[in-house]
Amino acid sequence: MYQRTVLSNGIRIVTEYIPHLHSVTLGAWFEVGSRHELPEEWGVSHFIEHLMFKGNKKYSAREIAEIMDNHGGYLNAFTGKEETCYYFKALDEDFTMAADVLGEMLLHSLFSYDDLIKEKNVVLEEIGMYEDSPEDLAHDLFEEAFWADHALGRRILGSPGSVGKFTKEQICLYLEKHYTTDRLVIASAGNIPHERVVKEFAERFSDLPRGQKHPLESPIKNGRRGLFHNKNLEQVHLCLGNSTFARNDKRRHMLNLLDTIIGGGVSSLLFQELREERGLVYNTYSFNSSYEDVGLCGIYAGFSPHNWSKVWDVICSLFSDLSKYIHEEMLQRAKGQLRGSLMLSLESTNNRMTRLARGELDEGRIITPEELLIEVEQVKYIDLMALAVEIYNPKDWTWVSLGQQNYGGDPLCPKIC
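The chain above was modelled as a monomer; its predicted structure follows.
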């Protein structure tokens, strides 16, 4: 059973009560992420996420870890471009305990000087880890090129220079500004009734300050742009893509179907053409990201340097005439794939909790699986192809490659499609 309550202070609580389970997953979602940071705050959203686990007035960092482990549950968090989520999964009998740990973290963390120093080192190691992951780095470089000079184009982790300058005063001011009741969604899925979730968190978060959301400055895509990033790697990592639309746009289901057809699995267009038919890549896929007011879609491929021109030619051929490659039966297959993925995801309370939160954040309401399936089924082939031609136009691509530029001669530059 789905229920939704908006408290008098603005906190939104959405739940799905599933009485036959013996567990619950609950997330506290704050509508703040790296996009909301000023240049001098670059990476502070993610840094705060780390610090929340380092101890508070009631529990030390070790106690936070041991309490959850002792009860077989877990507590974690992640930071995105527009949100930060803290969540736990626990037995239903341990709900009050887990809620208490989460509440103390979010309301009473100490942010001691020693913890700031230690966690800066931890985040610097995390930044270094991503630098050593060329696929992840290629995606970051692509977004930097796509939305240059805008917060959406900056990496969530920050930089060694920005992280090294964070102070406790800066962190507390950021929390006061952004960790407010109007930006908080509590989402719960499992064997805890809605009324109990409301009672637990209405009282616990009553002291959170009220805030006010400010309009966001929309980024401007920098037109067609191609950038090489030279690095001594065994492969070239290529990302390319184009603008789409906001996350609550009615065409989002059409985009997800198109994403599935183009690069969403082993039967996808990219996988079949680049790997199965020609053996040019090991890994290739498509992706899309949607935000409050803008979005992007793209494709990724990793391949040996000597296959540069072959891979590029295949990609250009595919996207210059998608109607030649995408047929009605592929749309039906994609619908089946999304339907199956959705139904399988409902086996997890983590996924159910996330779906509830995303519905509230994106559209301000609970979206049931049945409603989603109906909307997906209504997508028509002619509309899908019109969108494909619009957003996968090679003439509008931004692309970034990471890897060796020189292969025993002049740099190999992709020719214009």
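DSSP finds 15 helices and eleven strands in the chain.
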